[in-house]
Amino acid sequence: MLMLLATLMFFTRLPFWRLTDVPADRFKRVVPRWPWVGWLTGGLMALTLFLSSRVFPLTIAWILALLIRIILTGCLHEDGLADFFDGFGGGRTRERTLEIMKDSHIGTFGVVGLIVYYAALLQLPTVLPRETLIAVVLCGDCWAKCCAAQLINFLSYARTEETAKNKTVYERMSLGELLLCFFGGLAPAFICTFILGWFPHRFLWLLLVPVAVMWLLRTLMKQRIQGYTGDCCGATFLLCELSLYLAVMAAYPHWC
Predict the structure, then answer these.
(1) Are 141 and 241 in contact (CB under 8 A)?
(2) Residues with Cβ < 8 Å from 58, sequence gap 6 or more?
(3) pLDDT in the model for residue 198
(4) Which pLDDT does position 14 carry in this prediction?
């Protein structure tokens, strides 16, 4: 329970810190439980979509759902995405890339990256019906977090603990934590496919798209900064999630 609280405190802005004090070393092992935060953020996004779409057009409901997650996380992942684009777009050396990513100011690459990201994201309700979009949101949030979490197993942290933004260096997953991570990330997709019947079975093949995106980003990070940062994890999550959404949009006409 203490680890779950630590994870919720780390990845959301909800006042879980009021419940109890969590030792600082617990935050080094929150990443394996990151997909379980998706059950909260993705679940509330899905609920917002379900309720608000009964009052507003689906596009507005989708914007409200995105806003809910932004409020819950305090733009944690969006900040990482902007810093990632700035660093990898403007930096030419490892040192310069890390320096730009640590700068709190947003640059041109970050602005353009966020605009393109949200422009693509806002196309979902123009292609997918409400029920499919609700299911994809829950599955995408959890699975993309699971994929992004694997960075800590494949790469070393690119900074020292003292120079890290949050003063935390994540520890690699044990076997038990790895299984916990994958269960939290995959369970919603299997529930929606095999129990609720919201997706055809071939939907599960689309889950490989975020895996490929994660691996490509992991390769880029290894070449450029010889590791990962917290910003890299946040950016990888959003890009993996977006890749799944785009794959579903491309495949959906063939399901009907």
Answers:
(1) yes
(2) 125, 130, 133
(3) 84
(4) 87
**Which tokens is 143 given?**
């699975």
Please give the backbone phi and psi of residue 157, each rounded to the nearest 5 degrees, phi first. -70, 135
Which residue type, as a one-letter code, is found at position 102?
Answer: K
The pair phi, psi for residue 228, each rounded to 5°, is -135, 165
Q: CA-CA distances (angstroms) from residue 209 to 35, 57, 85, 237?
A: 17, 29, 21, 13
Listed residue (212, 221, 45, 211) closest to 133, CA to CA: 45
Model's pTM, two decimal places?
A: 0.95
- Amino acid identity of residue 6, one-letter, is A
Amino acid at 187: A
Cβ neighbours of residue 168 closer than 8 Å, sequence gap 6 or more? 24, 27, 28, 161, 230
By the 8 A CB rule, do 29 and 178 touch? no
Strand partners, 228: 157
Q: Quick one: pLDDT at residue 159?
A: 80
Strand intervals (E) in the chain: none
What parts of the chain have a pLDDT lower than 50? none
- The whole-number pLDDT of residue 164 equals 62
Residues 10, 36 contacting (CB under 8 angstroms): no
Residues 6+ apart with CB under 8 A from 250: none
Alpha-carbon distance of 232 to 148, in angstroms, equals 9
Listing DSSP states for 132-156 in one string gives: HHHHHHHHHHHHHHHHHHTHHHHS-
Tokens at 188, concatenated = 């919603």
> Among candidates 145, 200, 194, which has minimal Cα distance to 33?
145
Quote the tokens at residue 60.
Answer: 């507005």
d(CA 182, CA 98): 30
